[in-house]
Every structure is written in structure tokens, then in C-alpha cells.
Design goal:
With 435 residues, the chain is α/β, with parallel strands linked by helices. The protein is built from 15 helices and twelve strands. It folds into three domains: 259 residues, Rossmann fold (3-Layer(aba) Sandwich), CATH 3.40.50.1440; 108 residues, 60s Ribosomal Protein L30, Chain: A, CATH 3.30.1330; 48 residues, Helix Hairpins. Helix 1 packs across helix 5, helix 1 crosses helix 8 and helix 4 packs across helix 5. The two termini are 34 Å apart. The protein binds guanosine-5'-triphosphate and magnesium ion. The site of guanosine-5'-triphosphate (GTP) has 24 residues, from helix 1, helix 5 and helix 8.
Length: 435
């Protein structure tokens, strides 16, 4: 079952490029069954071609980033984007959600949809459409918001998922919180799940665990790709080679467990990933991680809502201020991964009292990211209450002072519409805070 991706804007395209590069790299040490599954989900191959093509449509309003994605230089030579599946214009959205949403979106929709429907037709069975974008610029957030609504209208019933990158809380473009609130409110209404990645957390992992002094976007995307790869890479049963007779049985774990587990209550659709270990490649041969050690650390990361770099060990599952979950998918990869004991993740204390403890455990033999053992949890939890409240505060302050509102009105987005988006995101933060 394949996944069609829509990479939008600088961030969406650079991250998508890094993600497919990671998948292609994993193929080199994967079992034949694992290779077949991964290829079926994420890649296509034209007759007589030696290269695999991502099942992807690349969209940006300026040409630079897509041109880079199309260049073959740094890639392992087994894959390459299809030039026909790209769409770009000459003028970006200038970090303005309204420009992307009201101008570029309607003007570009038809051409983008032609490419999207071509990708959908080329896939025998589709799990869904995955959109990758930043929530802070103008194209990923604005054009992405326009397109997700249009896709929902055009393909009712298809599963839609977004990977949204949240900006650093400080030091970037001043209107980023406006863009974030406007885009999140739209994605949340149209999409089945919104997986959020915080650039601040990724930066912390890069500096504290990978010892990179000033991580660049390429290095950050490498970390994010492994994070998302850990929940998208297929998990095969132990005797996978025998059992997976047709690749149609292959699914990305995140799609497979979406409706019945992760977003069982459709009012709550924010997902987060915590994964470990995070270490430079040169450390991996000396790693003595055990399954029980990894499991202990991951549980603590989950309840203290932290990365591996800043685990708060003073919290207990029964402490009041823990990060409460609605649902968790625990994924172990590597040697004897099926032997991991997932029972600590079934502890009722770590779940909201609003639902029964919901946990599923899946495993796979593949040595993902060159780790002998690695562990991830894909979680629907309170993880984003704090950053959302901070962005909401930025928006209240600017909105009350009338700051920069004209930039949005100029492109036809009224104060009332902005207020509606604000109310939707406030409600999301409130619902999660009160789990
Ligand atoms: N993790 C990560 N963040 C990125 C990357 N590129 C940009 N960002 C972040 O995304 C935000 C800016 O969004 P962009 O994707 O550059 O904007 P865009 O969608 O191209 O929109 P316009 O340039 O305004 O047309 C900032 O918060 C950046 O830190 C990337 O490759 N990786
Ligand atoms: Mg751009």
C-alpha cells in the first residue's frame, strides 16, 4: 500500500529529499522482503528505468529548492525524482500565509492536481497522502493549507496526513506565529492526523547528542528523517519473507494504526515521535544499549515530554505534571526486537482518564539507522500544549496591537478569519491541556 507525498515549500522539499535519501540508504542493508515492502510503499519504477522514483509531487513557489532536489549529485544512484512531478513558480510567498493561501493556492491548484492524480493512478493501492511542510513560511503553510482543503474535496475518503515543522520559538520571522496558527487551524480540520516536529527539539538533539556545534538544515533534516522514518519504515513479521506474499500487505506502521489507535477520537489528531538512541555513527559499534534500558529511557522521555538530551528523571508515571497520552504506538527495531517487554507503556497512570489505556507494540528485525537496537514511540499526547500556548500568546499580543494584520488583509484574509483560526487553535490547546 503506497504513500503519495506532497512536498511543499523549502522545508517540505528539503525534508522530503532527506527522507527519501534515508529510505534509499536503508535498502542497502535490508532483507529482500523489507526492500520489496519499502519500495512498494514509497517508490515507483518506470519500465526500462534503472532508478526508483519517489511517489511524490514537489511544489514550491520559487525554483531554487526544487532544482536542488532534482540534482543527482549527492544521492545514492538508485533513486531520483521525476521532473514531471514537480511544480514551481518564480516568486515565493514571502513568509505570508495569506499570499500562499489566497493567491498562489488557487492559481496553482489545477496543475498540481494533475500531477497528484497521475501519482495516485500509478499506485495500485494507496494508504493515503502525506503532506510535508513548514508551518511558519508562506508556501508550505499557505499553499499547503489551500491544497489540503482542495484534496479533501476532490478525494473524499482518502486518508490525509501532514508532517508540519514548527519554527524555533525565537529568532526567526516575526509573523511566524500568525502563519502557524492559520495553517494549523486549516490542517487540523481537513487532515486525519498532524504529526508535528519542533525545530527547537531537533536543534537540541543535534547539539547535545550528535555534538554538532551549529547544526545546519541538512543536519537537522537528517535527524528528522530518522525520526519519521522510524514510524514509516515497514515492520515485517518475524518470518516476513514467508508471510508477506504480496507487497499489498505492506503498510507504514503509522498509517496502519492510525484510525483504530492513534486518532481513534478524531477530536485529537496531533502526533509526536520520540525515538532513541541518538548518537554519532562512530559511537554505534560501541553501544551497549539493552532493550530494557532503551525502554526505561523512552518511557521517561514520553512522560517528561523531552528528547533524549534532557530527560527529567524525577517524574514518576504517577506524578501530577506528566505528559498524558491518549494513545501510543511503540516500535522496536533490531536484534530480537520482538522480545522487548512493552508493558511499562500500558501503565494506566500515563494515559488520560478520558479513555482506556491504548498501546500497541510492533517490532521489526531490520537494523534501522545502523543501530543494533532502536526504539520509538509515536504518541497522541499533550506534548504540544506548551509550544502552542507560546505561539498563541505571540499572536494575541500582535493581534491586539493590530500588528502586521494588514499584511494578511492585503491578500483577502480578514481579521474575522484570523480570529476564527485563533479560536480553533485555542480549542485544540485547551482540549489537550484538559486531558
Ligand atoms: N527542519 C527544517 N526547517 C526548515 C527547513 N527549511 C526551512 N525551515 C523552517 O521553515 C520555516 C520557513 O519556512 P520555509 O519552508 O522556508 O518557507 P516556504 O514554505 O518556502 O514559504 P516562502 O519561502 O515564504 O514562500 C522556518 O521556521 C525555518 O526554520 C528545513 O529544511 N528543515
Ligand atoms: Mg520558500
Amino acid at each position: 500500500m503506497s504513500i503519495i507525498t506532497l512536498q511543499i515549500g523549502q522545508c517540505g522539499n528539503q525534508l522530503g529529499d532527506s527522507f527519501y535519501n534515508l529510505l534509499a540508504g536503508e535498502l542497502s542493508n535490508a532483507s529482500p522482503a523489507s526492500q520489496a515492502c519499502t519500495l512498494d510503499i514509497f517508490f515507483d519504477q518506470k519500465p526500462n528505468s534503472t532508478k526508483y522514483e519517489p511517489r511524490s509531487v514537489l511544489v514550491d513557489m520559487e525554483p531554487k529548492v526544487i532544482a536542488k532536489c532534482l540534482s543527482t549529485q549527492k544521492k545514492p544512484d538508485i533513486w531520483q525524482y521525476n521532473k514531471d512531478m514537480t511544480f514551481c513558480k518564480q516568486e515565493g510567498s514571502g513568509n505570508n500565509w495569506a499570499f500562499g493561501y489566497s493567491r498562489h493556492g488557487p492559481a496553482c491548484k489545477d496543475e498540481i492536481f494533475e500531477k497528484l492524480s497521475a501519482q495516485l493512478e500509478r499506485s495500485d493501492m494507496t494508504s493515503g497522502i502525506l503532506m510535508l511542510q513548514s508551518l511558519a513560511g508562506g508556501t508550505g503553510s499557505g499553499v499547503g493549507s489551500y491544497l489540503i482543503d482542495a484534496i479533501q474535496d476532490e478525494y473524499p475518503g482518502i486518508t490525509l496526513m501532514n508532517i508540519g515543522v514548527m519554527p524555533h520559538l525565537t529568532g526567526e520571522v516575526i509573523v511566524q506565529s500568525y502563519n502557524l496558527v492559520l495553517s494549523l487551524s486549516k490542517l487540523y480540520q481537513a487532515s486525519d492526523a498532524v504529526l508535528l516536529i519542533e525545530n527547537d527539539t531537533i536543534n537540541e538533539i543535534c547539539t547535545k547528542l550528535l555534538h554538532l556545534k551549529r547544526p545546519n538544515l541538512h543536519e537537522m533534516n537528517f535527524v528528522i528523517s530518522h525520526m519519521i522514518g522510524s514510524v514509516f519504515y515497514p515492520c515485517l513479521p518475524e518470518d516476513g519473507a514467508k508471510k508477506v506474499t504480496t507487497t499489498q500487505q505492506c503498510q507504514a506502521p503509522i498509517f496502519e494504526h492510525l484510525p483504530e489507535l492513534l486518532t481513534a477520537d478524531p477530536r485529537y489528531k496531533l502526533l509526536t515521535i520520540k525515538n532513541l538512541p541518538q548518537m554519532p555513527d562512530s559511537f554505534k559499534d560501541f553501544s551497549n544499549d539493552t532493550w530494557s534500558g532503551l525502554s526505561k529511557r523512552l518511557l521517561q522521555m514520553l512522560i517528561s515530554n523531552s528528547s533524549e538530551a534532557s530527560i527529567n528523571w524525577s517524574l514518576q508515571p504517577t506524578s501530577k505534571s506528566i505528559n498524558k497520552s491518549l494513545a501510543n504506538l511503540v516500535i522496536a527495531r533490531g536484534f530480537e526486537s520482538s522480545k522487548l517487554d512493552p508493558s511499562p507503556f500500558t501503565n494506566k497512570a500515563i494515559y488520560s482518564s478520558k479513555n482506556k489505556a491504548e498501546m500497541k507494540f510492533v517490532s521489526d528485525h531490520h537494523l534501522f539507522n545502523k543501530n543494533q537496537r532502536s526504539l520509538s514511540v509515536l504518541s497522541n499526547s499533550q506534548a504540544f500544549v506548551d509550544p502552542l500556548e507560546k505561539h498563541l500568546n505571540n499572536v494575541y499580543n500582535m493581534f491586539e496591537a493590530g500588528a502586521f494584520v494588514y499584511q494578511y488583509e492585503k491578500f483577502g484574509v480578514s481579521k474575522d478569519e484570523m480570529q476564527d483560526s485563533l479560536a480553533i487553535v485555542e480549542q485544540i490547546a485547551y482540549d489537550y491541556a484538559n486531558l
